[in-house]
Amino acid sequence: QVQLVESGGGLVQAGGSLRLSCVASGGTFNTYAMGWFRQAPGKEEKEREFVAGIGWRGMSTHYANSVKGRFAISRDNDKNTMFLQINSVEPEDTADYYCAAKPFYTSDTWSINEVDSWGQGTRVTVSS
User: Fold this and answer.
1) 76: closest CA among 112, 122, 22, 35?
2) C-alpha torsion angle, residues 57, 63, 68, 70 (rounded to 10)
3) Would you give per-residue pLDDT tens digits along the chain (128 residues)?
4) In sequence order, what are the residues at sequence separation of 6 or more whose Cβ sits closer than 8 angstroms to the Cβ of residue 51?
5) Residue 8: which of 91, 80, 75, 98 has the closest Cα?
6) Which residues share a beta bridge with 95?
7) Residue 21 in contact with residue 83, Cβ under 8 Å?
8) What percent of the chain has pLDDT over 90?
9) Residue 43 contacts by C-beta under 8 Å, 6 or more apart in sequence?
10) Which end of the chain is more exposed for a tag (fewer CB within 10 A), N or C?
11) Contact 39, 46 (CB under 8 A)
């Protein structure tokens, strides 16, 4: 299994931007579909919300309706890194953001049960 480490979270004002990163090691990064989930304060792990997914070559992407047009997922296979650019943040975006890897890309809403590997999470807090 690939190991994942997120970074880039922090405190941001509503309307601002930030960029999350996820670095992979211990596996063949460019064979995995990658994605981001988030877990809002007070929610349990089983309630993690799918945010965005990207295929192994980076050519296929899709987003949850709640973030479409504001978030952008990308990956750099040469650097074993995935990114999530978050723009026009809203207080409702406050959550722990988790990097996820799974064997095959699908363009639907991913279930947490499909994920092979998780990162430890990075917290994003949006102030209004």
Assistant:
1) 22
2) -60
3) 899 999 999 999 999 999 999 999 998 999 999 999 999 999 999 999 999 999 999 999 999 999 999 999 999 999 999 999 999 999 999 999 999 999 999 999 999 999 999 999 999 999 98
4) 35, 36, 37, 38, 63, 64, 67, 71, 84, 97
5) 98
6) 124
7) yes
8) 91
9) none
10) C
11) no
Three-class SS string for the chain?
A: CCEEEEECCEEEECCCCEEEEEEEECCCHHHCEEEEEEECCCCCHHHCEEEEEECCCCCCEEECCCCCCCEEEEEEHHHCEEEEEECCCCHHHCEEEEEEEECCCCCCCCCHHHCCEECCCEEEEEEC
pLDDT-above-70 percentage for the chain:
100
Q: Is 50 left (phi over 0), alpha (psi -120 to 50) or beta?
A: beta
Residue written as tokens 């639907």? Answer: 108
pLDDT at residue 27, rounded to an integer: 83
